[in-house]
């Protein structure tokens, strides 16, 4: 599908104003195409259209939105997920909440554009098969040590705990826990992006900033100007996710001796491609940070052609 296809379907699927990124027509086009692609996939599958807002309260007005499924149908069927193993992984995660988690169940089930269901569709088949998970992790990231002993979705070592980790609600979309030869553990934390663009964030409070500064300093991998130039910008969230991986080593070195943060995004998402290139310039070493495209993971076909093809049909154009 290309931009001319988008024009062909313009009258059928209204482009959302939230997809427009000021001063960035390339990212705007990507976001619109991603929304259109999900809308067309839903129609092809025969799934009922959802609404904006997603959960309509009594007396509230709403409108149809093609990139969403009708919420009751979505929850009853799990149609946002590509197979039963993935649906099981979703159900298991929802049955085991973490304190202060930010997992939105409505978006998880009903929003076709959300990166969290995409994360489950990408990695959910691995959660019940640790042998396959280990094979996949070492195929995708050959430098990862040890053996995968757990796959955890929307996971943090601890959220909003004073004096520990980042003291915020940051979490990895999926984390692969590793059993290392020396008896300690490692963590490979992964953040997935799909339709999102990389946005500037508010400057944190002085207390949070002090905590982030401490983790940044103790990591000893950032350039001298990194924090002052990243904070409050569109690189802040990437930096905080990276810091979460680094903070694990600092807080519990008796348990964790290795960590890495990986960001995964579509090759056609220009916003994250450019942002991660800029972020790398603030690192003296990239051993704890990596960026992969979804397409590069699919090339390994660790799940087999059937699952890989279903995922590609769903998310790639």
What report would you give on this structure?
The structure is a single chain. This protein has 317 residues and is an alpha/beta fold. It has 2 domains: 3-69, no CATH class; 81-315, no CATH class. The chain contains 13 helices and 7 strands. It has helices spanning 3-8, 25-45, 71-77, 84-95, 105-110, 115-123, 130-140, 206-219, 226-230, 236-251, 270-280, 294-298, 305-315, and strands spanning 49-52, 63-69, 147-155, 172-179, 185-192, 256-265, 289-293. A 5-stranded mixed sheet has the order 3-4-5-6-7, sandwiched between helices. Strands 1-2 form a two-stranded antiparallel sheet. Strand 4 (172-179) and strand 5 form a beta hairpin. The protein is globular, with a radius of gyration of 20 Å. The chain starts with a helix and ends with a helix.
Distance between the termini: 6 Å
Global mean pLDDT: 93
Order of helices and strands: HHEEHHHHHEEEHHHEHEHH
Secondary structure category: alpha/beta
Low-confidence stretches are none
How many separate domains make up the residues? 2
Query: Outline, from the CA principal axes?
Result: globular
Percent in helix: 40-55%
List key phrases describing it.
single chain; 317 residues; alpha/beta; 2 domains; five-stranded mixed beta sheet; two-stranded antiparallel sheet; 42% helix; globular
